[in-house]
């Protein structure tokens, strides 16, 4: 487990997606991404990398409308692979299948490959460089966007692709939001994240524990357009893991002090950010 995705940090652990054709999505996530089924029912599938811990849930509502790319919601979710060799293997697999890629980037802190599922839900596959190689200046991390080096494929070894590596985790989530400043206040002042990178008035990157980012926020195509109903293909909600009941309780208190509605049903606590994106506040089972 990455030290940035365990106690005492707060991080994203899972995403729950709405899809328009569950069978089509199952085929993509199993055969293209190599994830395993933890639960497979008529309307819902839970996917895992290691066969035990859920990463992505797929749900097909009775009538799923098309994905609205101009509304707030998911920009992409990002699966963190254990090594550069694993990323190279995944890239080679996608190239062999001629699966359409949206890009490949070197962000200094990481290397990444981008694609989308059949409903247009964005996906990043990435590997982190060692954290002692990241460059920081006054609490801001250097995170440019350059082309990924073709030498990544030199990492390949003989042998067939074996699916998603077992130690793959949810590395971060990137959201498109309606109002960047309101979102920054909500996630930082309310939920307890730190601002670690900022790109003019277009994008913020936030984290806990000195990670390069657990959450990205942008208004590139969603400014002024909050998330809509929960029947459109896209993200239904994501899960934030808090290190303790105390830490989650402090976040809830801060949110209530900001007059943010908080829904508490037993142990399940949910909130909606200023863009109407639903978040489940969970306490890590490891603590």
Spell out the helices and strands N to C. Answer: EHEEEEHEEEEEEEHEEEEHEEE
CATH topology: 2,3-Dihydroxybiphenyl 1,2-Dioxygenase, domain 1
* Structural class designation: alpha+beta
Question: Whole-number average pLDDT?
Answer: 95
Fourth CATH level, the homologous superfamily? 2,3-Dihydroxybiphenyl 1,2-Dioxygenase, domain 1
| Known CATH architecture | Roll
Outline the structure in words:
This protein has 287 residues and is of the alpha+beta class. The chain has a single domain (3-283), classed as 2,3-Dihydroxybiphenyl 1,2-Dioxygenase, domain 1, CATH 3.10.180. 17% of the residues lie in helices and 36% in strands. It has four helices and 19 strands. The chain has helices at 22-32, 84-96, 180-190, 245-257; strands spanning 11-18, 36-40, 44-48, 54-59, 73-80, 103-106, 110-116, 122-128, 136-137, 140-141, 146-147, 169-176, 194-199, 203-207, 215-218, 234-242, 262-265, 268-272, 278-283. Strands 11-6-7-8-5-12-15-14-13 form a nine-stranded mixed β-sheet, with helices on one face. The protein has an eight-stranded mixed β-sheet with strand order 2-3-4-1-16-19-18-17, covered by helices on one side. It holds the Pfam family Glyoxalase. It comes from Sporolactobacillus shoreae. Keywords: Metal-binding.
């Amino acid at each position: 487990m990455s030290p940035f995705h365990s106690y005492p940090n707060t991080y994203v652990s899972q995403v729950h997606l709405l899809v328009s054709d569950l069978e089509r999505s199952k085929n993509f996530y199993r055969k293209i991404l190599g994830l395993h089924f933890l639960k497979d029912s008529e309307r819902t599938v839970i996917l895992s990398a290691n066969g035990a811990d859920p990463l992505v849930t797929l749900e097909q509502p009775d009538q799923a409308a098309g994905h609205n790319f101009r509304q707030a919601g998911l920009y992409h979710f990002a699966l963190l692979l254990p090594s550069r060799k694993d990323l190279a293997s995944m890239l080679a697999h996608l190239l062999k299948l001629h699966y359409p890629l949206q890009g490949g980037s070197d962000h200094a802190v990481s290397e990444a490959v981008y694609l989308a599922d059949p409903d247009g839900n964005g996906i990043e596959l990435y590997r982190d460089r060692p954290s002692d190689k990241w460059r920081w200046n006054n609490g801001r991390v250097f995170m440019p966007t350059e082309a990924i080096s073709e030498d990544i494929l030199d990492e390949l070894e003989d042998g067939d692709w074996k699916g998603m590596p077992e130690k793959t985790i949810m590395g971060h989530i990137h959201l498109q939001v309606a109002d960047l400043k309101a979102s920054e206040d909500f996630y930082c002042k309310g939920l307890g994240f730190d601002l670690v990178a900022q790109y003019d008035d277009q994008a913020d990157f936030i984290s806990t524990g000195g990670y390069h980012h657990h959450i990205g926020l942008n208004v590139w195509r969603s400014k002024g357009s909050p998330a809509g109903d929960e029947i459109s293909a896209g993200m239904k909600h994501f899960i934030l893991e808090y290190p303790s009941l105390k830490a989650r309780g402090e976040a809830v208190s801060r949110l209530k002090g900001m007059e943010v509605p908080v829904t508490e049903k037993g142990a399940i606590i949910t909130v909606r950010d200023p863009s109407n994106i639903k978040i489940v506040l969970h306490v890590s089972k490891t603590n």
